[in-house]
Amino acid sequence: GIQVEQSPPDLILQEGANSTLRCNFSDSVNNLQWFHQNPWGQLINLFYIPSGTKQNGRLSATTVATERYSLLYISSSQTTDSGVYFCAVINQAGTALIFGKGTTLSVSS
Amino acid sequence: GAVVSQHPSRVICKSGTSVKIECRSLDFQATTMFWYRQFPKQSLMLMATSNEGSKATYEQGVEKDKFLINHASLTLSTLTVTSAHPEDSSFYICSAAPWDTFGSGTRLTVV
Fold it and tell me: Which residues in B lie closer than 8 A to residue A42 (C-beta atoms)?
C-alpha cells in the first residue's frame, strides 16, 4: 500500500519562528490533506492539496505531485500552533485516508 | 460547515464490559463513516469503514466480533467495544465522508 512519511518527527520552536514540515508519499495520489490535531485530540483539516500551492493566513502548503512530496509552512508561529500535524493521502481503493506518523510541534513563548 | 459529533469524549470502564461510542453527522447525511484508533503518540490507524444499511468493512487485523459497528441511519454510526480489555485502551476517532470532518474523539480507558 501507499506509504506516507513525515519529517521531522518533533519540532520545538520559539514563538515567532517559521517552520517547514515535509510529507513524502510512495505512490501517485489524487488526494492529499494536512491536518492539525490539538492537544485535546481534535483533528482539524488545514488543506486539501493534491497539487499546487495554497495559503490560509500564516499557513501555506505546497504539493509537488510528480516528485511525491508536500510541504506545510508555518510562519510567525504562535503557542496555539502546538500539536501534531498529520499528512494523509487516500488509499488505493479510494475509500479512506492513510495517515503519516505526524510531526509534533511545540511552540513556546 | 459539516459537523461530526462524537460521544462520549471520555469513558472509563471495567475489564470485560462493553462500551458504545456514537458518531453523528449533525448537518449532513453521511452514507460512509470511518473509525480510527490512535495509540499514545502514534498515528491514526483505520479500523473500519461503516456504510449505511450494510455491513462494515474491517481493516486487516481488526476483530469484527470485538469492534461491532452499526450504521443504521444516514446520520449515526456506532462503535461498540465488546468485552473490553486494558489493551483496548486508546483514542477512538470517527470521521464522515468526504474525509475532512472528524469527531472530537473518545478516550477509552479500560481498568
Answer: 102, 104-105
The answer to whether residues B108 and B90 touch, using CB atoms and an 8 Å cutoff, is yes
Q: What is the mean pLDDT of chain A?
A: 94
DSSP letter at B52 equals T
Contact B48, B63 (CB under 8 A): no
pLDDT for res B99: 57
- The per-residue pLDDT for range A64-83, each reduced to its tens digit, is 999 999 999 999 999 999 99
CB contact under 8 A, B105 and A86: no
Radius of gyration of chain B (CA): 13
User: Measured between beta carbons, which residues in chain B are less than 8 angstroms from residue A41?
Assistant: 38, 91, 93, 104-105, 107
Which 11-30 residues of chain B touch chain A by CB within 8 A? none
Q: What is the pLDDT of residues B34-84, one digit of tens each?
A: 999 999 889 999 999 998 888 899 999 999 999 999 998 889 999 999 999
Strands A69-74 and A19-25: antiparallel
Q: Is the CB of residue B100 less than 8 Å away from at least one CB of chain A?
A: yes
Give the DSSP letter string of B68-84. Answer: EEEEEETTEEEEEE-S-
In the numeric block, the cell 498515528 is attached to: B43
